[in-house]
Write a structure and sequence with these properties.
Mean pLDDT: 98
Radius of gyration: 20 Å
Bound molecules: 3-hydroxy-3-methylglutaryl-coenzyme A
Shape: globular
Structural class: alpha+beta
Helix content: 25-40%
């Protein structure tokens, strides 16, 4: 029996800004954002669209009625939680209509949370092969207007259904984990935005990748030739490339070109969305699978997960025979094409228009699963 990703999809909010517009507004050379950071567009949300809105849409893309009757665990990974106690997955469980005898919880370790959820799900299904687990990584990445991190913001969710004998990617038992107590990016309770040491975060990300890669080589005996592609956590698209280049020095030109070509395919969606925090690695995986024409069943894909603070994990999966029809490239392309481009003034207005859950009220955002009402701090979501 194999265990892994049976279905996978992402959702992003209906607005975006163009990075050239942001560069002009911030008096920066646009090439810094497009080339230096590697971002072309950035997803933006209204205050009535939150992590539950994104998670519900992303999960709706992949779940059948039979899945709703079978899922027994719902995991939400996020660092944009809306409650210090109650898990977002409990609300998600109701909005999706999942059968009641299920476990629902939320987990956190910066951008690593999605991988923690995936690995929990894999272990659960290995023990209980009839179970299905829904893992949703959902976040709003914000650093503040005019901040150094502003061009690396984003918003959205990735949903994954983890089952026995999955139809997309079977997960291998070759994980290398790494924990280091480092303050490169953190958000103390009560802070709207994270505190970031940008250069330290870049350095820690690259060092962590080198460490888990070397340990993977030592422990599992794999070399680059064993991987048809590597997918990375993508806080901005230049970041993964910097880490990748750090292990390519001694490879042949052909090997470098091969793995860098797959990297470009893995960042196509992120260039248009930005950082999804917990979902970024999995957005990269979707992008790779939906853009690469040279991948085939049986290929091994390596995945590098990084969460500031810092926890990293490198692991791999094999593409399953006949995986192609289970991807949702058309849905994802349409989602990106249908978004509305905002001016920088409109983006700044949305950014400053914060949801105040201490004031009761109703909202006129008529998009599905948007927040329709706040009563006694409780959010209601539009289900029709
Ligand atoms: P910055 O200070 O604005 O940018 O911060 P910079 O001056 O370092 O420039 C960035 C790059 O643009 C440089 O390239 C410049 O040379 C280049 P590099 O040397 O790095 O290759 N550049 C240009 N290129 C072409 N034409 C030009 C031009 N001008 C400059 N005209 C920083 C950048 C990423 C630090 C900032 O945006 C930031 O703090 N972002 C947030 C932190 C972050 O994303 N860190 C990544 C690693 S940590 C991580 O991944 C975890 C995270 O997802 C959180 C979590 O785990 O929850 C963030």
């Amino acid at each position: 029996m194999t265990v892994g990703i049976d279905r996978i999809s992402f959702f992003v909010p209906p607005y975006f800004i163009d990075m050239t517009d942001l560069a002009h507004a911030r008096d920066v050379d646009p090439n810094k954002f497009h080339i230096g950071i590697g971002q072309d567009q950035m997803a933006v949300n209204a205050k009535t669209q939150d992590i539950i809105t994104f998670a519900t849409h992303a999960a709706k893309h992949i779940l059948t009625e039979e899945d709703l009757e079978t899922i027994d665990t719902v995991i939400v990974a996020t660092e944009s939680g809306i409650d210090e106690s109650k898990a977002a997955s409990v609300v998600l469980h109701r909005l999706l209509g999942i059968q009641p005898f299920a476990r629902s919880f939320e987990i956190k370790e910066a951008c690593y949370g999605g991988t923690a959820g995936l690995q929990f799900a894999k272990n659960h299904v290995t023990l209980h092969p009839k179970s299905k687990v829904l893992v949703v990584a959902t976040d709003i990445a914000r650093y503040g207007l005019n901040s150094a991190g502003e061009p690396t913001q984003g918003a959205g969710a990735v949903a994954m259904l983890i089952t026995a004998n999955p139809r997309v990617l079977s997960l291998n038992d070759d994980n290398v984990m790494l924990t280091q107590d480092i303050y490169d990016f953190w958000r103390p309770v009560g802070h709207d935005y994270p505190l970031v040491d940008g250069p330290l975060s870049n350095e820690t990300y690259i060092n962590a990748f080198q460490k888990v890669w070397q340990e993977n080589t030592r422990r599992n005996g794999y070399t680059l030739a064993d991987y048809q592609a590597l997918a990375f956590h993508i806080p901005y698209t230049k970041m993964g490339k910097k880490a990748l280049l750090a292990i390519l020095e001694n490879e042949t030109e052909d090997e470098q070109a091969r793995i860098l070509a797959r990297y470009e395919e893995s960042i196509a969606y992120s260039r248009r969305i930005g950082n999804l925090y917990t979902g970024s690695l999995y957005l990269g995986l979707i992008s790779l699978l939906e853009h690469a024409t040279s991948l085939k069943a049986g290929d091994r894909i390596g995945l590098f997960s990084y969460g500031s603070g810092a926890v990293s994990e490198f692991f791999s999966g094999h593409l399953v025979e006949g995986y192609e029809p289970y991807l949702l490239a058309d849905v994802h392309t349409a989602l990106l094409e249908q978004r509305v481009k905002l001016s920088i003034e409109a983006y700044e207005e949305l950014f400053n228009d914060k949801l105040d859950t201490t004031i009761d009220g109703t909202f006129d955002d008529d998009t599905l699963f948007s927040i329709s009402e706040i009563q006694h701090t409780i959010r209601s979501y539009r289900t029709k």
